[in-house]
Amino acid sequence: MGSMLSDLKNQSKKILANYLYPKYVYIPLASGGDEDITTLVKKGDHVCIGTIIGKRKEPNKISIHSSVSGYVVGFVEKYDYHGKKVRCVKIENDGKDTYLEDLPYQKKINQYTKKEFLETILDTGIVGLGGDAIPTYMKYNTDKKLTTLIVNATECDPYVSSDTVLFMEKCEEILETIDAIVEINHMEEAVIAVSKKNTGLIHKINNYLGTYLNIRMKLVEDHYPIGWERTLVREICHTNYKEIPMEKGIVVNNVATIFAIYEALKYHKPLTERIVTFSGEGFQKQYNVKIKIGTLVKDVVEAMQGYSEENVVLVAGGAMRGKAIASDELVLSPEISCVLALIPTEVKQPLPCISCGKCIMRCPAKLNPILIKDAYQKKNKKLLEQLEVERCMECGLCSYICPTHQNLCEDMIEIKKWWKGGKS
Ligand code: SF4
Ligand code: SF4
């Protein structure tokens, strides 16, 4: 798996391109799969970068901002990260990049109080950019003592390189932010987890790390799912938690989230941009692209010289946990770090199970997908409970490792849903 990871990453060549002036953006009235949003704009309204166009309701209250300046054209449906159609605010970009207010400049970002820090990352709409879109302030909003910040720079998914590109470009800013977060939250230390094979990034961080005594780098193995939060916490802090790392005084943020916090603290800049890896043989060109939130995949692909074949399979997210999407009318929301275009020969049809046991041996949650499927087929809820199906974290490793290309992860998601439905 290791060499494959390096090869695939090289395909996206770690080139950073910009696509920051789409004609239209489509800002989803949803956040992290939650569509219970209060809409605050109407057709014809003028908006600026940072205008709040929607608010998520309690308890995860977070603002959704316009990523461009221009006019609200109306409301349309587009595909979201989960492959569902979602209502979006369509905004015509006037290309003027007008901000709602002058962006104040904060020279020293470590001088925020904890209260100001929380208010700032809430106001600017910062959410987890590693795939969960959990409002970031929630990870810090506690009276409990926080001790450790883990910065996830592992990028263990074979196709994704957006965080590496960002860290290489903005190393000083990212380290400054990590240091500030540790100081503001009175934490003991920060640990940056980097894959052992990512030598370019290790070298870069080492060059700048000297002055930060409370930040260390931890080199981790180059295999999936090392970047999964639970695995990282176990690897770095040698502990387990029940629901969230905060129980053990730990916060895990990925690199893109840390940089979004930097822009929030330094300029009060709302979350309106991110870097997305466009990878896979189905693209003519493969890049990391800085985009405005709400940009359509279709528009970026056109600018990248299109697809290499007529029929490609699009996957939002990485190869491991990504979801196949029916159309390139897919909106780039904050949690999408990667879009894959696979040519159909890369998508293998499942063959019968050969009972090799690999899915059981490699499951990081120590589950038995075969017995779980069997219990599901027998509609045996009690057995599913004993087999602890609810502990499946949908990492996709079982599907990836299966030599007969079983869609085990998708099966687990379905089974979990069925099991939960029966429970309540
Ligand atoms: S998707 Fe679930 S069952 Fe499959 S390897 Fe991951 S945790 Fe285990
Ligand atoms: S890895 Fe695939 S073939 Fe092997 S036991 Fe699991 S489902 Fe069957």
Outline of this structure?
Helix 5 packs across helix 8 and helix 11 packs across helix 14. The protein has 14 helices and 17 strands. It is an alpha/beta fold and 424 residues long.
Properties at a glance:
21% strand; globular; 17 strands; single chain; 424 residues; 14 helices; binds iron/sulfur cluster; four-stranded antiparallel β-sheet; disordered N terminus; alpha/beta; Rossmann fold; six-stranded mixed β-sheet; 30% helix
Descriptive account of the structure:
With 424 residues, the chain is an alpha/beta fold. It folds into three domains: 2-102 and 271-345, no CATH class; 109-267, Rossmann fold, CATH 3.40.50; 358-423, no CATH class. The protein has 14 helices and 17 strands. The chain has helices at residues 2-11, 114-123, 137-140, 162-169, 171-184, 199-209, 229-237, 255-267, 297-303, 358-362, 369-377, 381-386, 397-401, 408-423, and strands at residues 16-19, 24-28, 37-39, 46-47, 52-56, 63-65, 70-79, 85-93, 148-153, 189-195, 215-220, 250-254, 273-279, 287-292, 313-316, 323-325, 338-342. The strands form four sheets. A six-stranded mixed β-sheet has the order 1-14-13-17-15-16, with helices on both faces. Strands 2-8-7-4 form a four-stranded antiparallel β-sheet, with no helix packed on it. α11 (369-377) packs across α14. The protein is globular, with a radius of gyration of 21 Å. The two termini are 40 Å apart. 46% of the residues are buried. Residues 1-8 have low confidence and may be disordered. The site of one iron/sulfur cluster has 15 residues, from α13 and α14.
